[in-house]
Input
Amino acid sequence: MTGTILIVEDEPAIAELIDVTLKRNGHHTLRASSVEEAIHLIDRALPNLALIDWMLPGASGIDLIKRIRSNKRTQSMPVIMLTAKAGEDDKLLGLYKGADDYITKPFSPRELVARIKAVLRRRAPQLTDDIVETNGLQVDPVTHRVTANGDALRMGPSEFRLLHFFMTHTERVYTRTQLLDQVWGDHVFVEERTVDVHIRRLRQALEKSGYDEHIQTVRGAGYRFSKS
Amino acid sequence: MTGTILIVEDEPAIAELIDVTLKRNGHHTLRASSVEEAIHLIDRALPNLALIDWMLPGASGIDLIKRIRSNKRTQSMPVIMLTAKAGEDDKLLGLYKGADDYITKPFSPRELVARIKAVLRRRAPQLTDDIVETNGLQVDPVTHRVTANGDALRMGPSEFRLLHFFMTHTERVYTRTQLLDQVWGDHVFVEERTVDVHIRRLRQALEKSGYDEHIQTVRGAGYRFSKS
DNA sequence: CTATATTATGACTAATTTGTTACATAAGCA
DNA sequence: TGCTTATGTAACAAATTAGTCATAATATAG
Output
């Protein structure tokens, strides 16, 4: 559930430290030691977040962020910048340049994990482990359970992910394409209509508890989860 | 079950005192009087916890912790630091540098044992000696016995460890990889599907008492032990 | 109210995941 | 050593899930 994090850092020791810290916290990791390598990895599979060192050989971290932000596919990927510089100006500059947050070296593993969690909570709540609840419908990513006023509902993995995404992104219409990207992952090639079928299956799973009402069709646009 | 504890301490008298205390409490011990020696011992067999003196000849305890934390194999080993310094700054620094807890000299054997137990309970509850019990299903790490409402169940060692891990980590899904890491140990290389087979064997062992219901499959995710 | 676009649904097949058994090997013990 | 137990794998069976399509139902513009 906790997604893939790309580490762009050229100092092996630091990269390793970050790597193990993140893995211990249940994240998958990817490592790159240069901007080129990072771009290549991002190209193959969009990470859920990137940690980017400010100082890199060749093109700098700033350049990488610039590139990430200018590409439609990657522009919404959360980015945290790692920097040895502590000057106020630099901090402001770093944020200004498109990072979601920054961490000044040296940092503790605890701080790193906390920052990541904060950014993910804001930018990709479906990747956190928090229990989500709406009017008695509860989704628990840790136990991997859905309950309606206490009793368990059963559904397939895709329906679980779909519901979890909806419940962390309520009151907003998503097109089928957006749902495919967000719930199925980018780079997967399936028909848009497939979403309809899974919506159907999710509704069926929710039907007997009445929560299927929350999954609403928005004609010509897509689907929406509404709390009311 | 109470695992092996590495003592890294150069003062023989103190080392001896700790050694005796721990052995009396059922732990196995390893002793090192320098960082080099400690590294050598850790290399041969990963202890379940390390007690490390802050002040050591040559490289300091801090350096040792740094090394432990930067190696994938050892990074999750719990560490308790022994320090003569009592200043607030040092305490904070010690924790910051990667120790799980610290004990200020002089300390009582009772305190030492309590701290170790606390750290193990937090970091590796399956290593403590406490009897674990759920709805009449009881696992006793000391006698290495499982009983269902009083009468004994028999199962192999792996199934025992698996059950013990589950019962100390209930209501949470674990992937096969996570179970391999936690129950089989790190740097073992076995197939993921092996977990399935042992789950099967564990279920068989629990079957006649009905407790096999607690071992639940979460399709697409892994397995979970549920109390209900 | 009809034509058209859009969505819902059921059925089918393919693909994936898990359960189970059997077997070869290793380890432990008498 | 010979016997028992434990372990890891492979192989096959069973169950579940995923994706696609055809068709029915429904909404909306005009």
Observations:
- Residues 156-158, 190-191, 193-194, 197-198, 201, 219-220 of chain B lie near DNA strand D (CB under 10 Å from a C1').
- Residues 109-123 of chain B form the longest helix (15 residues).
- Chain B touches chain A at residues 69-70, 72, 75-76, 96, 98, 171-173, 218-221, 224, 226 (CB under 8 Å).
